[in-house]
Amino acid sequence: MKTLLLSQADVQSVIGMKDAVEICEKTFQGMGEGTVVNPTKVLLDLGETGNYPHYGGFFNAMPAYIGWLDLAGIKWVGGFMNPKRQQLGLPYINGMILLADPRLGMFLAVLDGAYITSLRTGAQTAVALKYLFPGKKKLRLGLYGAGGQGHTQTLAISQWFEIEEVTVYDVCGQAASRYARDMKDVVKGEIRIAQRPEEAADADAVICVTQATESFLKKEWVKPGTIVFPMGSHQECEEELLLAADHIVVDHVGQCSHRGALAKVIESGKMSIEAMDYTIGELAAGKQSMEDISGKRVICIPVGTGAMDVSVAGIAYFRARERGLGQEFEFANFGDC
What secondary structure letter does DSSP report for 266? Predict the structure, then answer.
């Protein structure tokens, strides 16, 4: 059996953001129904935290089985901020996805994972918003971080919502200006560049996709009725904001207990896993329903699961195979199988 190799260009030709949002919704429903198997990701620290070895990066291994596709896979993805990588002009994120037939254990495909990672990270926010704001069609966004993920988050949310206004804040003013130019056809309303960070917190949904090394989003900035998505460096929300949340929504309870925005407050004993009172999967599957949050602060943390990557990669693989894309490679000789 030959394995199909798919480049980033191959994947981009068969999958777009609209596809990713729809695929992620089905996969969240599967997580809520129990037909998706998603172990917690495994971290290989290569100096991201300053420890040995000092390469300023990390890799995550993220396996999953997707019931609605009857497909298994794993993503191997990393982020590196070291000077050598920056000198070479390489992007922060680099990843590969490996797909397998779960019945025979045969490897079906190897795909670029960076593009899929970008798509599904935005898509999971859009899906969460659909169930956290049931029936809502228009949104005001506050955005911290105007880089690639800021763009992708906005594009994903625009698939299901009319964006009435975006207030964007970035420590690099040029990045915020570039975002405003790039997103003018995606955002129906006004794009405002915040001069002070607190300005971006006045929104229905506040999206944090930064590389901040210190927390900055304060409790007093966030009004009741706001949903906050801390998705970047995991240092974005001050502890007081996390502890004051009326509801905490996560994509994966086990994973969010030791990764992402809640890790430190749980490790310190200031919060328990019982504080995570909703999962996106249970909401999407109809197992839970979100009450009116107009007077409440909500923290939503889709820290990222392999299930989303594997499902998007799976649809890309099926479409690419139908269109004759990619290159087949025989890693091992299994006779006529």
Answer: H
Read off the pLDDT of residues 202-217 as tens digits, 9 standing for 90 and up. Answer: 999 999 999 898 999 9
DSSP 326: S
Distance CA 254, CA 264 (A): 14
CA distances from 39 to 43, 62, 77, 116, 282 (A): 12, 8, 16, 19, 17
Q: Residue 304: what are its φ and ψ, rounded to 5°?
A: 105, 125
Positive or negative, the Cα torsion across 172, 174, 176, 182?
Answer: negative
What does residue 193 show for φ and ψ, rounded to 5 degrees? -95, 115
Cα–Cα distance, 159 to 33 (Å, whole number): 25
Residue 273: HSE in the Cβ half-sphere, 13 Å Cα cutoff? 10
3-state DSSP call for residue 329?
Answer: strand
CA 246 to CA 193: how far, in whole Å?
29
Q: What is the pLDDT of residues 287-319, one digit of tens each?
A: 999 888 999 999 999 999 999 999 999 999 999
Q: Please name the residues in contact with 144: beta carbons below 8 A apart, sequence gap of 6 or more.
A: 168, 169, 170, 197, 200, 206, 207, 208, 209, 210, 216, 217, 232, 236
Give the chain's length.
337
* Token duo for residue 270: 């200031």
Helix locations, the chain, DSSP H: 8-14, 17-33, 83-87, 114-132, 148-157, 173-182, 239-243, 253-256, 263-267, 280-284, 306-323
Per-residue pLDDT of 226-249, as tens digits, reads: 999 999 877 899 999 999 999 999
Phi-psi map region of 246: left, alpha, beta (phi>0 left; psi -120 to 50 alpha): alpha
* C-alpha distances in Å from residue 328, one per residue of 72, 101, 320: 19, 16, 12
What letter represents residue 208's amino acid? C
Number of neighbours of residue 335 by Cβ within 10 angstroms: 5
